[in-house]
Amino acid sequence: MSNILNTKQASIVTRKLYTGVAPVKIVAINPTTQELRELLNNDEVKEVSYSQTNRDGEPTTRIDFWLKNEELGILTKFAIFMSNKDITYKSGKKLLINNKLQTSISNSVEELTANAKMSWFKTDKVRFCKEGEDILYNFVSNLVNADLNDDSLDFEFSDIDAILNGNITELKSINDHFKRGIKVLLGVKVVNGREYQEVYKHKFMREESNGTKILERFLNQPYTEFKVDYYTVQLEEFIAGKSTSVFKGMSNDTDNSSLDDVLKDLDDDMSI
């Protein structure tokens, strides 16, 4: 008898994809190869490395947050690429951030301070923002439900340089301490005919939040659009061939806000 008849058949797993705002929990941060194999129930997962280089050959660190929605069976990865380089725009201006998590774009701290329109920006602990740092602070502040209106707020990692260099001990401690969830916007990207789950990186929501007005403003800005093939704001299962293409928000209002206005919304969006 042929040995082929005794071959064990591989299990077929149908993975559902979703679009829209979904509540999730962090179940792993930069897991080891073995931890990732156990998380994905797949012993064939290749060796993982979170140290990489960018197009210019400079060192970067990738931080992978594995997010899960138990009820819907969603398990997806959200990656932040970080480096010690300042975030610099084509104009030559740079992104500044302070310990209140306020952000703005300027050539220097002095120029920002002299701008009368930026009187709302606190300059006590302002500095140039490193690549990926703005996304990480945005993510973590929503995860822990930080009160951004608290005058005493001093929201800074104890060692941002360690995180930039791949030490995620502090991030794990924060997640373990608060034991909270977060809401993220999911989309679907098509690459070579295959659909992949994607997470929007420019705006996150606290797990208690329901309003999407600020999220929609971000989505409709050229600097902060969601570069995927499909997304909705309302959470729904993605069905190939039936789901509509990219959805540009739920409001018909024209929004001509400047990027500074959009960034400022990170500080003002406290509604739930």
What does this protein structure show overall?
The protein has 272 residues and is an alpha+beta fold. It has a domain at 15-82 and 183-268. It has helices at 33-40, 109-114, 133-143, 160-164, 169-178, 213-219, 259-268; strands spanning 17-29, 51-53, 59-69, 74-82, 94-97, 103-106, 127-128, 182-191, 194-199, 205-206, 230-231, 236-238. The strands form two sheets. Strands 1, 2, 3, 4, 8, 9, 10, 11 and 12 form a nine-stranded antiparallel sheet that branches. The protein has a three-stranded antiparallel sheet with strand order 6-5-7. Strand 8 and strand 9 (194-199) form a beta hairpin.
Keywords summarizing the entry:
21% helix, nine-stranded antiparallel sheet, disordered C terminus, 272 residues, 25% strand, alpha+beta, 12 strands
